[in-house]
Amino acid sequence: MLPQALNNTIDALSMLPGVGQRTAERYAYFLFKTNPKVSENIADALMNLHKNVKSCPITFALIDADEEVSSFYSDPARDKTTILVVEEPLDIYAIEQTKSYKGTYHVLGGAISPIDGITPDQLHIGELIKRVNSDGAKEVIIATNPSVEGESTALLLEKLLHEQNPDLKLTRLARGLPLGVDLSYADQITLSAALENRTNL
Fold it and tell me: 149 — phi, psi (to 5°)?
């Protein structure tokens, strides 16, 4: 029988997404046999996580607790008339790594998923509509994930934004087959998008 403290660590680690029982056991044993300072640093980081990180009240991006709004919004070099909509805060950093987007962002906080109990009123859709008006947005880029939930969310956004602002330019990230992927391994949504977004040769 394992010591209780080790069991408690395994149970805690197994609560993380994608971490099963065996992986949690390996992580816990690693933390036990390595320098105790590693565990102390992890514990300290976790203790400060909720105290020192919050959501921007405008973009809902993650910011330091002492910041008022996200630098993705406050930076005068950012084009406030262009808003790129993503599901989760970390999606922003994937876009930022391209170094090719200079507009602002809006985080929905998820995607519509009736099975998981996530309804439109739980997402930051109302705030997005207000931002479009207050910032005089000219274009909204919908960058939800290529999943059933992401597609449903994108369709609802298109409907609501067009109803409120008929002249607003609505675009979506191009979708299709990534380089190096065989057709037999592509899912139906990816293949459908690739067909829809096909280009001339």
Answer: -65, -40
Q: Is the dihedral of CA 95, 99, 101, 104 positive or negative?
A: positive
Interatomic CA distance for residues 146 and 148, integer angstroms: 7
Q: Residue 201: what pLDDT?
A: 58
- Report d(CA 54, CA 45) in Å as an integer: 15
Positive or negative torsion for Cα 44, 49, 50, 53:
positive
In terms of C-beta density within 10 A (0-12 exposed, 13-18 middle, 19 or more buried), how is residue 115 classed? Answer: exposed
Q: What is the pLDDT of residues 33-69, one digit of tens each?
A: 999 999 999 999 999 999 999 999 999 999 999 999 9
The predicted pLDDT at position 161 comes to 94
What is the token pair recorded at 135?
């910032």
Q: What are the phi and psi torsion angles at 83 (to 5°)?
A: -125, 120
H-helix or E-strand containing 80?
strand 79-86
**56 in Cβ contact with 69 (< 8 Å):** yes
pTM over 0.85: no
User: What band does 199 get if pLDDT is binned at 50, 70 and 90?
Assistant: low
Per-residue pLDDT tens over the stretch 114-142: 888 889 999 999 999 999 999 999 999 99
CA separation for the pair 129, 141 (Å, rounded): 13
Among 62, 77, 162, 149, smallest CA distance to 107 is for: 62
What the chain holds in terms of domains, given with CATH numbers, is: 4-54 (1.10.8.420), 73-172 (3.40.1360.10)
